[in-house]
């Protein structure tokens, strides 16, 4: 009885509450989304099963303390790279091409698994380990040690990034870049190094964007950008000229969210048909049925989640734990900003799901694995008053 009480007292029930509310939101939204289409699969049931598996993953990860997480981080990272490599070399009978990308393993009778969703968490562990180990070995900071740390972080990220780009999966590639950026900014690398790099990156992105708009043939030739990727950018800037192709989803999404107005139309009262809305465009369903109020509540839940993880990272005295928190925050924040942004036309469509709400077993289980790390931090590290 005492062990049980000790276990429950170390569980982060604040995080449990937030995840439970996100789970309820997901189930209600997916139920509504699947009821407006002719689907042979029960997406709601599959999402509930994925949540149950996710709880099991959390309970497994929570048993690992910081030393154990550091020990397994490179094994997990290496396993992730191996699986991503298998996606490249395995035949299409095992790795089918879905929506133009070879990103999933197909298991008969089971479904599909997207390894890159788990690679995000493995990368967070690896980068946190790199930063923590580097600072232990280099107590005296110099420009040389900072450059060496930056090089290691980029190198560790480039390996999975290149493999994921081979699929190709632009959305997940951007998430890895967001994780890397967050880890670099928290790593303690001098701004004398970062400022020129950031300035150069902004200039480079602006230049590429200029050429995409005015000299697309050069981008196709030298960067290997596909025609459909140009379509996503053009349809983002002017969706109504691409209403029958790439701009179709964006126009329907804007119409759905706008028609929801302040209070929404109510559960099951959708009038705008948006194909496959249970995945990347689940926020459009919420916006139409629950309006500005409902959408704001969902965004507030994500704000509370990020705030809770930030608080966890600030309260812990273990730097390795802090780096993990920053990596998870970077991943979730980019996901939320990009997904909601693309449904309202602020960001281009990249196929990034809304964490914990969009339908998708691999995405959900990968995010639950990340939450397992946060639960582990709370479980193994007590908060001190002074």
Explain how this protein is built.
The chain is an all-alpha fold and 386 residues long. The chain has one domain (22-189, 226-380). Helices cover 70% and strands 2% of the residues. The chain is built from 14 helices and two strands; from the N terminus they run H-H-H-H-E-E-H-H-H-H-H-H-H-H-H-H. The chain has helices spanning 2-9, 13-34, 43-61, 66-89, 116-137, 143-165, 170-186, 191-214, 216-223, 227-237, 248-260, 282-315, 319-343, 361-380, and strands spanning 105-107, 111-113. A hairpin with a 3-residue loop joins strand 1 (105-107) and strand 2 (111-113). The two termini are 30 Å apart.
In short, what is this structure?
The protein has 386 residues and is mainly α.
Describe the structure using short key phrases:
70% helix, single chain, two-stranded antiparallel ribbon, mainly alpha, 14 helices, 2 strands, 386 residues
Write the layout of secondary structure elements.
Layout lengths: L1 H8 L3 H22 L8 H19 L4 H24 L15 E3 L3 E3 L2 H22 L5 H23 L4 H17 L4 H24 L1 H8 L3 H11 L10 H13 L21 H34 L3 H25 L17 H20 L6
Antiparallel strand pairs: 1-2
Helix pairs in contact: 2-3, 2-12, 3-14, 4-5, 4-6, 5-6, 5-7, 5-13, 5-14, 6-7, 7-13, 8-9, 11-12, 12-13, 13-14
Instruction: Determine the strand fraction and express it as a percent band.
Output: under 5%
Give the helix/strand class: mainly alpha
Shape descriptor reads globular
DSSP helical segment count: 14
Helicity, as a percent range: 55-70%
Mean pLDDT: 88
Compute the gyration radius: what is it?
21 Å
Number of strands: 2
Widest sheet: strand ordering: 1-2
Number of domains: 1
Give the distance, in angstroms, between the N- and C-terminal Cα atoms.
30 Å
Major β-sheet, in short?
A: 2 strands, antiparallel
| Element string (H = helix, E = strand) | HHHHEEHHHHHHHHHH
Any low-confidence stretches, pLDDT <50, length ≥5? none
């Amino acid at each position: 009885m005492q062990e049980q009480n000790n276990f429950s007292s170390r569980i982060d029930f604040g995080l449990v509450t937030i995840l439970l509310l996100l789970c309820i939101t997901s189930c209600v939204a997916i139920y509504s989304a699947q009821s407006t289409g002719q689907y042979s699969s029960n997406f709601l049931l599959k999402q509930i099963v994925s949540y149950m598996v996710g709880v099991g993953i959390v309970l497994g990860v929570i048993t690992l303390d910081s030393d154990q997480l550091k020990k397994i981080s490179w094994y997990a990272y290496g396993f992730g790279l191996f699986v991503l490599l298998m996606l490249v070399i395995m035949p299409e009978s095992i790795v089918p091409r879905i929506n133009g990308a070879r990103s999933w393993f197909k298991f008969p009778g089971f479904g599909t698994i997207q390894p890159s969703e788990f690679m995000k968490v493995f990368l967070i562990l690896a980068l946190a380990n790199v930063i923590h180990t580097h600072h232990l070995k280099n107590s005296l900071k110099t420009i040389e040690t900072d450059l060496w740390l930056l090089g290691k972080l980029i190198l560790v990220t480039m390996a999975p990034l290149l493999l994921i780009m081979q699929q190709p999966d632009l959305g997940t590639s951007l998430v890895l870049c967001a994780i890397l950026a967050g880890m670099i900014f928290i790593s303690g690398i001098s701004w004398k190094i970062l400022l020129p790099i950031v300035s150069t990156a902004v200039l480079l992105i602006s230049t590429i964007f200029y050429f995409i708009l005015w000299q697309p043939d050069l981008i196709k030739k030298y960067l290997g950008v596909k025609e459909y990727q140009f379509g996503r950018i053009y349809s983002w800037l002017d969706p109504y000229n691409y209403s029958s192709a790439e701009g179709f989803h964006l126009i329907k999404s804007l119409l759905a969210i706008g028609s929801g107005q302040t209070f929404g139309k109510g559960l099951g009262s959708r009038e705008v048909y948006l194909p496959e809305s249970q995945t990347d465009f689940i926020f459009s369903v919420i916006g139409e049925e629950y309006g500005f109020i409902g959408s704001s509540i969902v965004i507030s839940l994500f704000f509370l989640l990020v705030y809770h993880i930030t608080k966890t990272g600030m309260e812990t005295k273990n730097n390795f734990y802090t780096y993990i928190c920053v990596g998870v925050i970077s991943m979730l924040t980019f996901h939320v900003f990009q997904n909601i942004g693309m449904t309202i036309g602020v960001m281009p469509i990249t196929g990034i799901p809304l964490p914990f709400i969009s339908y998708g077993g691999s995405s959900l289980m990968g995010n639950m694995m990340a939450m397992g790390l946060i639960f582990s931090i709370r479980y193994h590290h007590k908060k001190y008053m002074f």
